[in-house]
Amino acid sequence: MSAEVCRATKSGLAAETQRRVNAKYSEELASESLEWIKGVTGENLNTAGDMDNFYEVLKDGTILCKLANAIQAGSVKKINTSQMAFKCMENINAFLEAARNFGVPAQETFQTVDLWERQNLNSVVICLQSLGRKAVKYGKPGIGPKEAEKNERVFSEEKLRAGQTIIGLQMGSNKGANQSGINFGNTRHM
User: Fold this and answer.
1) Which GO terms describe its molecular function (predicted)?
2) Separation in Å, CA 5 to CA 102, 114, 116
3) Per-residue pLDDT for 38 more than 50?
4) Are 98 and 74 in contact (CB under 8 A)?
5) Cα separation of 111 and 119, whole Å?
6) Phi, psi of 92 (to 5 degrees)
């Protein structure tokens, strides 16, 4: 028995919205994400970035749970091998919880249905890219741009007071000019 989701075909506004969501999907980033997962987990995956393959590889959540455990052992306590819908969605939820624990911001995660019901695969790619940046902190190879590090500076009270007396160049200067003699448009004749 297949765990496929049977939904009515979208039409009208819903179909247009789904087309817009799908248009944001990047096959290149999806392929890069799958390559990264393959490298971190050691699993033999098809790393083609098309939506169909990306969905098929990740839909049951087992690879995602293995990825979380490869980044940090014990991140996902139990990986369900059953293909029943709620067990697969449990896997996806367990991965999302682990991703948040790794430091992936809430706005860069996805909803379970985004993957399970193939609603928004782009958000899954965004989450994996974000996790790829966080994985470096756990000694794993990363993907995407290097994450910025905090560079906090502490100034003395004296230095802060000295800065208040300086007029920055960004504020501009009028070099003593004033508005006398400037007319815009037609003048009023009395």
Assistant:
1) actin filament binding
2) 30, 12, 8
3) yes
4) no
5) 9
6) -65, -45
Instruction: Catalogue the E-assigned strands of 127-174.
Output: none
Q: How far apart are CA 128 and CA 33, in angstroms?
A: 6
DSSP characters over 41-95: H--------SHHHHHHHHTTSHHHHHHHHHHSTTSSS-------HHHHHHHHHHH
Residues 55-82: tens digit of each pLDDT:
999 999 999 999 999 999 889 999 988 8
C-alpha 184: how far from chain center: 50
Find the mean pLDDT for residues 149-156. Answer: 84
Farthest-apart Cα atoms in the chain, separation: 92
Nearest alpha carbon to residue 96 among 106, 87, 82, 84: 106
Q: Record the pTM.
A: 0.70
Residue 76 region by backbone torsions, left for phi larger than 0, else alpha for psi between -120 and 50, else beta: beta
Confidence of residue 2 (pLDDT cuts 50, 70, 90): very low
